[in-house]
Design brief:
The protein is of the alpha+beta class and 278 residues long. The chain contains nine helices and seven strands. It has a domain of 145 residues: Alpha-Beta Plaits (2-Layer Sandwich).
Length: 278
């Protein structure tokens, strides 16, 4: 074949370019991503999700140590700061806490100590957000099903704000909790671990093929061939602002990726030994 080196360099350069473009992708997931977007249940869920400010709940857990009395005004002060922090984020829907319950009662909202007013609330309602015997409270809020990637910066700002509040009230421990938060914290690490595994496998295959066939070109092209399909797909996603879905980390998908990669590496090596390039 004529211009062998030119086509080889062109293929390697194009694959590297596509791989660089794909680096702009971020891990993402939606609860309805496995369902057809035109299905009636999905359409209904999306309308309810938007109208209610989110169908999924998360919360900020507020704990205090024994040096703080459960009816101390500082408890309400910390909860109020957390509540205001959440309300400052447009994507956070309808925070509710003991602050919200107390504000619904008659009286001066600027009073120094309104904690005793909690006794006027029904026990079931009060204990949903405040359990004094466990020295614990929580501020609940809603999360929309618009993708964890969009909530990443929001959760980062909330985490930073909670750290500031905690530094001002050292007797308190604040933590962001919920299934959406868990996915945000763990999904990215899952994809990073998968990327490290595939990169390590590609390096091992490169070394083995280079040593066996005594050709660096065969080793390089085997890696490029195994990576070019994923690079093209990821680059298209990156250019269309699509984020990387959790399905890419599903064990079956990982197994399929390994199988296809090994097949491509072997095919590349075989093709080169027969006198071909790809």
């Amino acid at each position: 074949m004529r211009h062998t080196k030119t086509f080889s360099r062109l293929g390697i350069g194009l694959t590297v370019l596509l791989a660089v473009i794909s680096l702009g992708l971020r891990p993402d997931e939606r609860n309805t991503e496995g369902l057809p977007s035109s299905a009636e249940p999905v359409v209904a869920l999306k309308k309810m999700d938007k109208a209610l400010g989110g169908l999924e709940f998360a919360n900020v857990r507020v704990k205090w140590d024994k040096t703080v009395a459960s009816d101390s005004p500082e408890v309400l002060t910390v909860v109020t700061k957390v509540d205001e922090l959440l309300r400052s984020e447009p994507l956070i829907g309808h925070p509710i806490s003991i602050r919200s319950l107390i504000d619904s009662l008659p009286g001066d909202p600027m009073a120094a100590n309104r904690m005793p007013m909690l006794e006027l609330l029904p026990p079931e309602l009060k204990r949903a957000f405040y359990t004094p015997e466990r020295r614990r409270g929580n501020v609940s809020f809603r999360v929309q099903d618009i993708g964890i990637a969009k909530y990443g910066p929001v959760f980062e700002r909330i985490d930073a704000g909670l750290a500031v509040i905690q530094s001002e009230h050292v007797a308190f421990d604040l933590a962001l909790q919920g299934s959406a938060v868990w996915r945000w914290e763990n999904l990215y690490q899952i994809l990073i671990d998968m990327l490290k595994s595939l990169t390590s496998a590609a390096f091992v295959i490169f070394v083995v093929l280079t040593l066996v066939y005594r050709s660096i070109r065969i080793g390089l092209i085997s890696i490029i061939r195994g990576r070019r399909h994923n690079s093209l797909f990821d680059a298209i996603q990156g250019r269309t602002s699509e984020n990387r879905r959790r399905a890419r980390s599903n064990p079956r998908c990982v197994h399929r990726s390994w199988h296809c990669a090994d097949h491509d590496h072997a095919s590349a090596a075989g093709g080169l030994c027969d006198g071909g390039i790809w």
